[in-house]
Amino acid sequence: MTKTELSPTQQSLLKSAAGCEDRAIRWPDNLRGGARTKIITALVEAGFAENRKGTLVVTEAGMRAVGVAPEAAPKRAPHTKAAGAPRKMREGSKQARLIEMLKRKEGASIEEIVEAFGWQPHTVRGAIAGALKKKLGLTVTSEKVDGRGRVYRIEA
């Protein structure tokens, strides 16, 4: 694999890692699953990255592949996400009302949420998985309840 064979994503990941002191490859949130696995496999097989104690790091060959001289790599602090105050949720918003429903002792089923908000079932599942679990980091549990179907809860 040569520089011209690297995908734009691979080049971006290697260049970014080459500029960090620890040379660790940091993954964007939208690069998951099979796509990430394919990139890891290709970079390791080509010798452009290696696993060091559970962290994928760019090798000197990987740095050269993207035009960064190993000895000229800047010594920057590792990437960190901007630390800020947690987002405040607007009172009465649909998201806030959904969280209230899920925090009740009895939780809420998909059907109950559909009725309360007028959403489609796939929208409810998407809101739970995307907005609540991924973006807000809430732990949403579910269990089958006789007569209600699958009931979702957020532990208070």
Percent range for β-strand residues = 5-15%
Please, how many helices?
6
The largest sheet, given as strand count, sense and whether it forms a barrel, is: 3 strands, antiparallel
Helices and strands, in order, run as HHEEHHEHHEE
Ends: how far apart? 51 Å
Shape: elongated
Q: Describe the strand arrangement of the main beta sheet, using strand numbers.
A: 3-5-4
How would you explain this protein's 3D organization?
- By secondary structure, the protein is an alpha+beta fold.
- The chain contains six helices and five strands.
- It has helices at 8-18, 33-45, 60-65, 94-103, 110-117, 121-135, and strands at 49-52, 55-58, 108-109, 140-145, 149-154.
- The strands form two sheets. Strands 3-5-4 form a three-stranded antiparallel β-sheet.
- A hairpin with a 3-residue loop joins strand 4 and strand 5 (149-154).
- The longest helix has 15 residues, at 121-135.
- It is elongated.
- The protein starts with 7 loop residues before the first helix and ends with a strand.
Can you give keywords for this protein?
single chain, 156 residues, alpha+beta, three-stranded antiparallel beta sheet, two-stranded antiparallel sheet, 5 strands, 14% strand, elongated
Structure at a glance:
This protein is an alpha+beta fold.
Topology:
Blueprint: H1 8-18, H2 33-45, E1 49-52, E2 55-58, H3 60-65, H4 94-103, E3 108-109, H5 110-117, H6 121-135, E4 140-145, E5 149-154
Antiparallel strand pairs: 1-2, 3-5, 4-5
